[in-house]
Amino acid sequence: MKRLLKYLTQYKKECVLGPLFKLLEATFELLVPLVMAAVIDTGIKNRDQGYIVQMCLVLVALGVVGLVCSITAQYFAAKASVGFAAKVRSALFGRIQRLGFAELDKEGAPTLITRMTSDINQVQNGMNLTLRLLLRSPFVVFGAMVMAFTIDWKAALIFAVAIPLLAVVVFGVMLWTMPRYKQVQSGLDRVLGKARENLTGVRVVRAFGREGTEVQAFEQENNALTHLQVFVGRVSGLMNPVTYILINLATLVLVWAGGLRVEEGAITQGQVVALLNYMGQILVELVKLANLIINITKALACANRVADVMDIEPALQEKPGASAPKPEGQGLSVEFRDVSLAYPGAGAESLSHISFSAAPGQTIGIIGGTGSGKSSLVNLIPRFYDCTGGQVLLGGTPAGDWPLEALREEIGVVPQRAQLFTGTIRENLQWGGGSATDEELWQALETAQAKDFVEQKPQKLDEPVAQGGRNFSGGQRQRLTIARALARKPRLLILDDSASALDFATDARLRSAIKNLPYGQTVFIVSQRASSIRHADQILVLDDGCAVGIGTHDELLQTCDVYREICESQMEKGGEGA
After folding, report:
1. Tens digit of pLDDT per residue, the chain (578 long)?
2. Are 487 and 450 in contact, with CB atoms under 8 Å apart?
3. How many CB atoms lie within 10 A of CB 576?
4. Cβ neighbours around 425 below 10 Å, total
5. From CA 222, how far away is CA 216, in angstroms rounded?
6. Which helix (H) or strand (E) holds 392?
7. Which backbone phi and psi does 487 adopt, to 5 degrees?
């Protein structure tokens, strides 16, 4: 929690004024039993109606002033806690945006979503309650005990015995529940992960008729979380009844001892009522304090989970003073020198000793079976991952020596999964080229073979795009993502199996249009279709993470068995027809 407190610095005034007004309210509340004692001992005893009315007006005044102080304290506490949560959420989102793919793979999307939503909400609630009650409740408890001692020290000894016993109960439950609440949040991560997985793969689940199995698996995770929450809740639930028992026992003893003191003439009946009122105040405040501690316990567990993500240092770091190399031409050269890649926690390398080079303006085709490492290889170029062995050079400069922003400005990436964002077609295309004019956007759409269907839309470039682009077909989404990459006119274009939803004719027109672009960029085409890469300047054939062939289409048909098998499985006459 300490690591997050720096986000409260902008709310120092609210953090002081909130508790201060709560203490003022508590002070007025502590005066109420004394006024009641005066009403009983003076007004009622002497049958002085004027005095009784006067004291009742004092009680009303104390109540009104206390209410104003309470509302003011709530305002400042809410302003500080909501602002604090907003800053923490913004900082956490910024940290997640800076994490590399390796850290995102390790943490997982479900737990990051939980920490940005549920965890930060718990921290916000805990902060709000802390500002309002953390000082007020102890102040009222000890203030009531002090006031009791001013009335009669012998009767007040009951307070001195009851309060430590109550503290043992409250803090004992807190120390036991704190680690358990952290386990509850981890269980929530697992439930969210299972739900997200099923929502993402709902078509696959239904296609294979696995609804029952998935429901059973979800219920298993959900029941485990429920049982843990019930168990922790039962222990936490003991706090209120145990505190009530102790307080009521103390009240019984106080009534008995107070009666004896009245018989002796040491105190008055009004003072006994005041002592009972103070005991009642202690009861209410200790119940509040017990609930406060439960909420603080949850908030601390959640704050530590949030801080754990904030403390993750991205593995991808820029070298101090790194500067972008001067442009060497329209395209960007790429060279792999004995490159290997092993994902964190993997038992074996995904890429092993890959060496090849691509000159500026060349088209490089990459082909291989499923899991051969095609996407892993192209992910090394924009530094989505860092190679674990060897070196990747762009424009003759190691990728690690480039500033990340400058490097990625030179590269247009079209990932395997076509992902569009809520907004309009224009806004999605301008992700790639923020300053692109409408004419340039239409040119990118034409090259990506998307111009025809965009022109048919009623609002054309201003046509709304739903979340994930679900109001477009798979092929349309792919063409729009290609247009988005082309809009920035990159010096290096990576098409990672991005035409899988296109028919052969559209795919051929797309490749021809990209090849004829005037700015002569270097192009990497990852595909499982031999026809998509057969005209590339170089073709890299991968098999189980190793480069088993490099050359042109005709050369590989003669020298590479893996490439020949792929072509024979897809084309007629051993790869000569498409």
Report:
1. 677 888 888 888 888 898 899 889 888 888 888 888 888 877 777 777 888 888 889 889 988 998 999 899 999 999 999 999 999 999 899 888 888 777 787 777 777 888 888 889 988 998 998 888 888 888 888 888 888 888 877 777 887 788 788 778 777 777 777 777 778 877 887 888 888 788 878 888 888 888 888 888 888 888 988 888 888 888 777 777 887 788 788 888 888 887 787 777 777 878 888 888 887 787 778 778 777 877 887 888 888 888 888 888 877 777 776 666 666 666 788 889 888 888 877 777 888 888 888 888 888 889 888 778 888 888 888 888 888 888 888 888 888 888 888 888 888 888 888 888 888 888 888 876 667 788 888 888 888 888 888 888 888 888 888 888 888 888 888 888 888 888 888 888 888 887 777 778 887 888 888 888 877 788 888 888 888 888 888 888 888 888 888 888 888 888 888 888 888 887 654 444 44
2. no
3. 11
4. 25
5. 10
6. strand 389-394
7. -65, -25
**Domains present along the chain, CATH in parentheses:** 10-310 (1.20.1560.10), 334-575 (3.40.50.300)
Q: Whole-angstrom Cα distance, residue 269 to residue 273? A: 6
CA 237/CA 229 separation, integer angstroms: 12
Burial (Cβ within 10 Å: 0-12, 13-18, ≥19) of residue 109:
middle
> Which residues partner with 393 through β-bridges?
335, 398
Q: Which tokens is 163 given?
A: 């309060």
- Helix (H) or strand (E) run with residue 424 in it: strand 423-424
Contacts of 196 (CB under 8 A, 6+ apart): 109, 110, 113
State the sign of the Cα–Cα–Cα–Cα dihedral 478, 480, 483, 488.
Answer: negative
The amino acid that residue 216 corresponds to is: Q
